[in-house]
Design goal:
The chain is mainly β. Helix content is about 5%, strand content about 40%.
Length: about 190
């Protein structure tokens, strides 16, 4: 049975994948392959914000607005990754090229915390096994081009599992159709 309740589409743990911009999109019911990298699962509390306020115009003949436009628009995905390896943490703060291994009495891996001035761009796949509102079918949110933004915050739960609270901002991708330049939601229906 189809549901019209919006909160049913983003409940539960989702898997977060990143890839180079332009990477081929997998089928909705297939595990991503190619250059798609599994960052890991979310903690089950994720948000997708469709930002962009309307500007209203009035004229002398009416008391209320007669026209509206949206001068800017944005899509921001907020989530917490759990169970992170340093490689995952590095991708989320765009410093994966700077990881270093050394032996200082024991083998160690170092992650620089400085992110630099120009963020790395990624394609993002936000995938759920039962994301479809049309039944227990898979689906995903796809952002063809974007950057990790905000101020990533490492978190440590009482159960000891580490997490990283992050935001991913969509950037316009002119290689997509006009309606999909900031991404889209695709779900299996049957």
């Amino acid at each position: 049975m189809a549901s019209s309740l919006p909160f049913e589409q983003l409940t539960g743990v989702l898997q977060v994948y990143v890839a180079p911009v332009g990477e081929a999109l997998p089928n909705v019911n297939a595990t991503p392959g190619g250059n798609w990298y599994l960052l890991g699962p979310t903690d089950g509390e994720q948000k997708i914000k469709h930002g962009g306020k309307l500007t209203f115009f009035r004229d002398n003949d009416h008391q209320g607005p007669v026209k509206s436009v949206r001068p800017e628009e944005m899509v921001v995905i907020s989530f917490t990754l759990v169970g992170l390896a340093l490689e995952d943490y590095a991708r989320a703060i765009a410093t994966q090229a700077n990881l270093s291994d050394a032996t200082v009495g024991v083998a160690v891996r170092t992650l620089p915390l400085k992110r630099g001035a120009v963020p790395a761009e990624f394609a993002l796949l936000f995938r759920g096994a039962a994301l479809s509102p049309y039944g227990a079918f898979p689906g995903y949110y796809y952002v063809p081009r974007g950057v990790f933004d905000g101020e990533p915050e490492p978190t440590f739960a009482k159960d000891g599992r580490p997490g990283l609270a992050v935001e991913f901002n969509a950037l316009e991708d002119d290689t997509q159709s006009a309606a999909n330049t900031l991404g889209f939601l695709r779900v299996q229906t049957a």
